[in-house]
Amino acid sequence: MGSLEHVLRMWADDEASRALGMDATVIEPDHAEVRMVVSDAMVNGHDIAHGGYIFTLADSAFALACNSRGQTTVAAGADITFVAAARRGDTLVAEARVRTAYGRSGITDVTVTREEDGAVIAEFRGRSRTLSSR
To answer: What is the pTM of this model?
Structure first.
């Protein structure tokens, strides 16, 4: 199975991302972009987007980018830095790029921006591990 066929099938089976209204707009080797509109259900008590939803958006883009090489790859860990608040109705775009892959390990950076003005909302760094084939 080709690299993109593997990741496209993975995305089609991703019920969690679909339930949040995410849309993968770019899927190519080592790169992915995913969009999501901040809904009423995603806003916390401060009337801003809950960080967990922003993390989930970044994590979904991370998964697409690191699986784009055609091998089953999972998260080994991730960190996020929130830079600015997102609000109800904002369209967020997570752009993921694999920075390095060595052996079965990799590092992927994801920048989450607000589509309307390009403001950076968060920076995410994911560490991945490719599963050995059986």
So the answer is: 0.95
